[in-house]
Amino acid sequence: MRLLIVEDENSLRESLVEQFKAAGFNVDAAADGEEGLYCGREYALDIAVIDLGLPKLPGIEVIKKLRAESKSYPILILTARDRWQDKVEGLQAGADDYVAKPFHFEELLARVQALLRRSGGWAQPVLRCGPVALDPRTQEVSVNDKRVELTSFEYRILEYLIHRAGEVISKAELTERLYAQDFDRDSNTIEVFIGRLRRKLDPEDTLKPIETLRGRGYRFSLQRESAG
Amino acid sequence: MQPRSLSTRLLASVTVLLVVFFGITIIALDLVFRDLSERAVKERLEVQIIALIYASEEDANGGLRPSPQQIGEARFNNPGSGMYGQVQRSDGTSSWRSESLTGTGLNFSYHLKAGERRFGEQRTADGSAVLVLSRGIEWEFKKHRTGTFVFSVAENLEPYYQQLNRFRVQLFGWFGVLMMLLLGSLAVLLRRLLSPLRRVEREIEAVESGDLTELGDGYPRELLGLTTNLNALLRSERERLARYRNTLGNLAHSFKTPLAVMRNLLNSGTARELSVARQLDEQVGRMDDIVKYQLKRAAASGGTGLGTAPVDVRAALEALRGALLKVYMDRNMSCELHVAEGCMFYGDREDLTEIGGNLLDNAFKWAKGKVRLTAERVSSPAARREGLLLVVEDDGPGIPPAERERVLDRGARLDERVSGQGIGLSVVRELAQLNGGSISIGDSPLGGARIEVRLPPV
Lengths: 228, 458
Prior knowledge:
The structure holds 2 protein chains of 2 kinds.
Chain A lengths: L1 E5 L3 H13 L3 E5 L2 H10 L4 E5 L7 H10 L6 E5 L4 H10 L3 E4 L4 H15 L7 E3 L2 E4 L4 E4 L2 E3 L3 H12 L4 E2 L1 H8 L8 H15 L8 E4 L3 E4 L8
Parallel strand pairs in A: 1-2, 1-3, 3-4, 4-5
Antiparallel strand pairs in A: 6-7, 7-8, 8-9, 10-12, 11-12
Helix pairs in contact in A: 2-3, 6-8
Chain B lengths: L5 H50 E3 L5 E3 L16 E7 L4 E4 L19 E7 L5 E12 L5 E11 L1 H36 L1 H15 L11 H47 L7 H25 L11 E2 H15 L6 E6 L4 E2 L3 H18 L3 E9 L8 E8 L6 H9 L14 H11 L3 E6 L5 E7 L3
Helix pairs in contact in B: 1-2, 4-5, 6-7, 7-9
């Protein structure tokens, strides 16, 4: 999942970037409103975390502009000014949730994941498709209740595919969402990881969880459990 | 005692002045007229007496009497005509009495020396007053014989009195009408002159009820000082509040940022392993609560709200409801909103949003799935601006009676408590009290807590 964090307080921003990366996110960061707006427009994001008190362009304006340009990914507000007037304005401008400073990272992460779940149409925290279960909170994957060990890149691909189970995701999109800009965008790499995923999830080749659609992309084809 | 009205005072003073002025004028005119009329009567008598004297000649008894051919005044001959004459000898006996004296019962017997003269009043038998002029004359008879005679002439005063009355009636009548006209025009003029005062009164009422946020232009010089100063006061109150809030907002932001950094540091990496990290984090939480509570208190307007438009309660509460439903979307909550028709809050918009937001958030946190928010109008006969009653109910576990006071107290007792418990309701109490109101916690038919906030009419 690709996440944008817009926060002007340097140590906080850097710390959050690290923490989100550790949680399995592909993280972009901006230090002011203008930069945040640019990133929000240009990158294929899954979610944005925006601080309200930004220099150059206020957080509320960033949100309004992004929504006006049909960016529909969930937006979570971080704010030190926790007057209800501000919260209502932020939510009316287009945000989906708010977290007041100071916050515990766990809470922020949980809210981010809840928003992602909601946007993917998942009602439960654990994403289940047939025998495959993925818990974004713990980054654990199991097939038929048996734990499967994945590398962080493998996990990221699987999480994204399951999140959008039933949809076709192109290789380009996968690359853009999951990997930082400086990563080697050799299209082969994705295929390699998909292959590894298949072997780990489906060693007997009975499940066939990931489908390849020639020229279009990949699809996680197992049935979602009670989609929200 | 009721304060006195300027108009009444003015009108009363002018009426008194007019009455006095006109009164003096009337009296003066009356006196002048009387004087003139009296003089005219007296002059006529003088003329008559001279005529009588010249018409007189010696009679057979050695007395004097006017010769009938020479009497010019015909009235002497008609009984009761109103013009009377008499000539007396020096011994007091009458030498001649005019025909007109018959039946009147008048007798002019005065003792006057020659050259003396006097006026007097008498009454006839039927009560009418007459004015008498008597003169003592030394008459030189033939053969150098002299004698003193007293000539008297009298005129009926009734016509004179009637004339005086007619004059007085006219005088009073005209002056009365004049005074009424004057008072009438004055009343109208007064109304027009004082209309700026009435306008100020109207506009101030409008400001109090929220229809206007400041007084208008075009006031006369005398009121300009009042209106411009009042407007300046209203404006500076608004600006001060905005400036204050802005400063507090900046303060909150600048204080919470290092708190956020601290918490984050304590949360991450190797720091989490240390036992002291948890304790430090707790202190961060306390500092956060203190800042939240005190800054919210300070940022509350709790003021008169004068010079600001009244707040549409339905719109404000719907915005809060929408915001909270969005945030708590995963829990599939239902939130009923009932707002009385035309419900307005005559106070600060932010205060209302703060109160409503904290109440709703608290309800959403604890509810199983149902929240109900009601807003009612509270009016009282003497009050100019209506009050507001907010009721929030949920279907959660409720708040046990023993806890209720403590829950409301949390913000104030920040040094005693453990961070993590919400201070939202205590903030609501603080804001309600600043607006002259109160909060109470009870049980709801929905199953959970029922919290009432009363903001009284003013």
